[in-house]
Every structure is written in structure tokens, then in C-alpha cells.
Write a structure and sequence with these properties.
Blueprint: E1 14-15, E2 20-22, E3 56-60, E4 87-91, H1 98-107, E5 111-116, H2 120-126, E6 134-138, E7 157-160, H3 178-192, E8 199-205, H4 216-219, H5 224-236, E9 242-247, E10 249-251, H6 260-264, E11 273-278, E12 285-287, H7 288-298, E13 307-314, H8 323-335
Parallel strand pairs: 4-5, 4-7, 5-6, 7-8, 8-9, 9-13, 10-12
Antiparallel strand pairs: 1-2, 2-6, 3-11, 11-13
Length: 336
């Protein structure tokens, strides 16, 4: 897919193979504003945690700051070779959760590949990176013809965190509706993925199984919960190894004017304790940083394969980026 990128980009991309772009020689550039991608669909007044009988959840509290890996926050990741064999394709990588996922992958020296409607946003957020660390493809999951097989060559893992608003808004311009994004986009992506993918992590929402019940039916007036559930069901029946993360109402961000270094220093404030549940009984809020970390952790934790989790964050200390603590959280949710 040949790209025609705007001449107004801060620096020109260099063309590599079909549909992708190479980053020029690294040097810092200013960031520009970026609207977050992904929707927060819980009612704004719902902030408390509640579980009905049958709901399963666990709180993990340890003395560790919930941030992107701070040890690498000052590192120049553009000059460091990837230390991982993973290649993680991130769909929605410049949105509210996606930008934090990509920044965290960069800090871990995990190679990422981004599928973006507007590749210029990647430079605005993440600066200029070596193509061995990050690669950008122009494409839109709503259009099957954009999902060329070259996009998926060498990809081992996929994180999809696309979304739109629950109610009509400016973000619906250009047919960016829940049906097109949360259902058709997910279906198109799943059909295009090769069977060699080791894990597909999908970010969804709490309440998707209850879109005909109050208060969820109010949020579903334009179908957002119904279409998210349809996307989930398609992933579950695809035969691909998957993990679905259903987020509560999103807090912390989106960080609309941040560059990579600032993203790496973002914190979840006091809401660092992580609550993970199963059964779609969880109600509350969750930091975008917590959702991003949960997605990255789920890539490698074997017990999360084929599982669906609801996730919130509350005041207290959290698991940070410790894989063992996250493994404990996920296992405890399954056991309850």
C-alpha cells in the first residue's frame, strides 16, 4: 500500500517495504496535540467498586509505584537494539491507552509495529525511533483492503485498543461509529491475522454482557456495548490465542500533549492497587496506565490465554511491572 504522507510532517518518513515507514535518524522533535482513542463508557458518576454474588475479584496491594518502567525513563531507546524476540503489533497505538502501551514497549526494548490511520501522530508522540525498534504502517481496520499481509509479517503478538465514544460526537466523523470500530474493525482484523500469532490481547469494556440492563442500557443507546460484545465473541471463536481485558471507566489521561519522555514518567497517582475480576460484575474506574500494563503482562502470562478479565484500579500500592505479581493477580481472579 503506497503512502502519500503530508509534507507538513516534522521530518520526512523514509519508505521501506509495502505499507510501512522507516524513521529518519533519531533526534528530538516537539510534540503536538493528539486526541485519545478508546472510549470510557461507564457513567461518570460510577466510581465505587461493587460485586454481586457470583462476581469474582481480587485486590493486589504491594509497595510499588504504578508507572511505566521508570528505570528506562531516561534511556535513549532509539539507539538500543531490541532485547526481545517479540514483535508486538499495536492497533490504536496513538490513543489514550495505546500510546502508553507503545511507550512502555519502547522502554522495555520490545519491537513494536503500529497500524495507524495517521502515521504522523507516531512521530508527534514517540519522536524519531530506529526502524528496528518501531515500525509504522498506514491503515484502518474498518477497511479490509488496508490489512495487507505484509503488515503482519514477523508479528508474534497483537494488542488492539481501538475505540470511539459511546454517544454521537465529533469523533464519529468519517463513519467512526461503534459499529464500524468495535465490531467491523475487530472482525476485519481477526480475519486478517495469521494463525501463527502467539497472543491477541483485546481491550474491551465492563458491562458488555449487560447492555440490556440499567444502567448499561443507557450507555448502549447507540450500540457501543453490543458491538464491543460482538467483537469479543468474534475473537473468542477465531481459534486464535486471546486475552480480553475489560476496562472500567478510564482515568489518567489521555495525555494529549505528551512526548515519549513525559509518557514514560506518567503515573497513576494514588490509584495503583489493581482489582481484577471475572464474570462481568465489576463496576468502577481504572487508570489507563493500569490497563496498558495489564495488556503487556498478558502477552506472556500463560494462564491468561483464553481468558476474559475485568479490571479496575483503586487507591493503594500496586503491582507495578512485576510479572510475578501480575500472574498472582490473574490467577487469583480465576480462582475466586
Amino acid at each position: 500500500m503506497a503512502l502519500k504522507l503530508s509534507s507538513q510532517l516534522p521530518l520526512p518518513f523514509q519508505k521501506s517495504h509495502k505499507g510501512s515507514q522507516r524513521w529518519p535518524i533519531p533526534h528530538p522533535i516537539p510534540s503536538t496535540n493528539l486526541a485519545g482513542c478508546g472510549c470510557s463508557i461507564l457513567p461518570s458518576g460510577v466510581t465505587s467498586l461493587s460485586r454481586r454474588s457470583g462476581g469474582r475479584g481480587v485486590v493486589h496491594a504491594v509497595k510499588e509505584e504504578e508507572t511505566l518502567p521508570s528505570a528506562l525513563a531516561e534511556a535513549d531507546v532509539s539507539k538500543t537494539p531490541s532485547s526481545s524476540s517479540k514483535v508486538v503489533l499495536v492497533i490504536g497505538g496513538t490513543g489514550g491507552v495505546g500510546q502508553l502501551i507503545v511507550a512502555s514497549l519502547l522502554s522495555r526494548n520490545i519491537k513494536s509495529r503500529l497500524l495507524l490511520r495517521d502515521p504522523s501522530k507516531a512521530i508527534s508522540l514517540f519522536g524519531i525511533q530506529d526502524e528496528n525498534i518501531i515500525e509504522v504502517h498506514k491503515g484502518d481496520t474498518r477497511n479490509p483492503s488496508d490489512l495487507d499481509s505484509t503488515i503482519f509479517e514477523g508479528v508474534t503478538h497483537v494488542i488492539c485498543c481501538t475505540g470511539t465514544t459511546a454517544f454521537p460526537s465529533k469523533r464519529w466523523d468519517g463513519d467512526n461509529t461503534p459499529e464500524r470500530v468495535d465490531w467491523e474493525g475487530i472482525r476485519n482484523l481477526v480475519l486478517a491475522l495469521p494463525p501463527t500469532i502467539e497472543r491477541l490481547v483485546l481491550v474491551s469494556s465492563v458491562g458488555v454482557t449487560k447492555y440490556n440492563e440499567l444502567p448499561w442500557s443507557i450507555m448502549n443507546l447507540f450500540g457501543v456495548l453490543k458491538f464491543k460484545k460482538m467483537g469479543e465473541d468474534f475473537v473468542r471463536s477465531s481459534g486464535l490465542p486471546f486475552t480480553i481485558i475489560r476496562a472500567g471507566r478510564l482515568t489518567d489521561g489521555p495525555y494529549t500533549s505528551y512526548d515519549l519522555n513525559t509518557l514514560l514518567k506518567a503515573t497513576a497517582g494514588k490509584r495503583r492497587a489493581v482489582v481484577i475480576s471475572q464474570g462481568d460484575e465489576l463496576v468502577g474506574e481504572v487508570s489507563r496506565l493500569v490497563v496498558a500494563e495489564a495488556c503487556i503482562q498478558a502477552l506472556d502470562i500463560e494462564c491468561t490465554k483464553g481468558q476474559i478479565y475485568e479490571i479496575n484500579s483503586i487507591e493503594g500500592d500496586g503491582p507495578g511491572s512485576d510479572p510475578e505479581k501480575w500472574k498472582e493477580l490473574f490467577k487469583a481472579a480465576e480462582a475466586n
